[in-house]
Amino acid sequence: MRAVVVxxxxxxxxxxxxxxxxxxIVPIEGKGQGVIARRFVxxxxxxxxxxxxxxxxxxDMTPESIRLALSQLPTAKQREYLSLANCHRKAxxxxxxxxxxxSFPLGNSSExxxxxxxxxxxxxxASRFNSSCLxxxxxxxxxxxxxxxxxxxxxxxxxxxxxxxxxxxxxFHPRAERRAVLERNFKFVCTCGACSLEGLALQESDSRRExxxxxxxxxGCGGNPREVLVKxxxxxxxxxxxxxxPFFDRSxxxxxxxxxxxxxxxxxxxxxxxxxxxx
Length: 279
Ligand SMILES: [Zn+2]
Description:
Layout: E1 23-28, E2 32-37, E3 46-50, E4 54-56, H1 63-71, H2 75-83, H3 94-102, E5 104-105, E6 120-122, E7 130-131, E8 137-142, E9 147-152, E10 163-164, H4 175-186, H5 199-220, H6 225-235, H7 250-255, H8 257-274
Parallel strand pairs: 7-10
Antiparallel strand pairs: 1-2, 3-9, 4-6, 5-6, 8-9
Helix pairs in contact: 5-6
The structure holds zinc ion.
């Protein structure tokens, strides 16, 4: 299942009711279906706010519990669920495989802290966004509206694919590890811009990500944010000019006012770094 990653923005999101759906879902060669911008999308823009089709508790989930949830839906929606990708055809029941492949946790879930959301949901449109290690979209579950919100983290041109990352904090790991996780969990070899680098460019990208990951862990574990910000600028200045995107845990942001301030500052950095086409 995908993990929730949260980046903060220094602007007020567009209300869901005012969304002019800026994308279309189309077949993409080698990827099944994917999401393409049908117009220019501004960084920070809310591109989708979607309620879950069904919700399950991963601990108690069975084919029967999924079948029961689906039985409450119109036939057309049940068919849409069955049309979603399934990376686990040989390993488990089809209903479970589809859920494992496409679900998002309803709340914070972090590989670093071991935090796990109690429930996960299926979102028919959000699940069509493919993965990239240079994501131009992030997803956040809003517990108040009970919707999965997807925001642009860079300007996106008409015709460009909209991608999230399926990796959460593992996004900061070297290419070999990123590819291994994606291949194991989602059964594909990532050929995104970052994973397509070779030689020195790849080494530098891997090094930047590892450094950002270390700094992220320091922030996530309660390190002094002022020191961390200084270190970010001192140790990894190129991160501010490239696509190595820092992510922040919303629960930490809520519980610590100082983290809120830091997140606003570093959130700006994430938008800035995401806006650059380098890796
Ligand atoms: Zn990749």
